[in-house]
Amino acid sequence: MRAFIAALSDDEQTDLVALMWLGRGDGTVEDWVDLRDEAQQHHNNRTASYLLGEPLLSDYLEEGLSQFGLSCAEFEIERL
Question: Are 60 and 54 in contact (CB under 8 A)?
Fold first, then answer.
């Protein structure tokens, strides 16, 4: 997982952090631009460690996606 996150572009890592924050309740979909801007300001080379240090990461990412009307299952189907 650490290698997967590290292989993401800076923009993709920023989106992932912002999505986790959204799912954690740090904002709403209407706040997405602000959440993303804040994630971009704090971006560094420790993104994987930061995300993997969050015990509820998968729950937060799932909740963040649901706020956009998406689900993890939809992404799995699209990849197949």
Answer: yes
What phi, psi does 45 have (nearest 5°)?
A: -85, 15
Alpha-helical runs (H) found in 25-69 = 32-41, 47-52, 57-67
16: Cβ–Cβ under 8 A, 6 or more apart, which residues?
Answer: 5, 8, 47, 51, 61
Provide, for the chain, the percentages of residues in helix, strand and coil under a 3-state DSSP scheme, each rounded to the nearest 5.
75, 0, 25
Tens digit of each residue's pLDDT (9 = 90 or more) over 40-64: 999 999 999 999 999 999 999 999 9
Contact 22, 59 (CB under 8 A): no
Q: What six digits make up the tokens of 25?
A: 């309740």
Collapsing DSSP to helix, strand or coil, 28 comes out as coil
pTM for the whole structure:
0.89
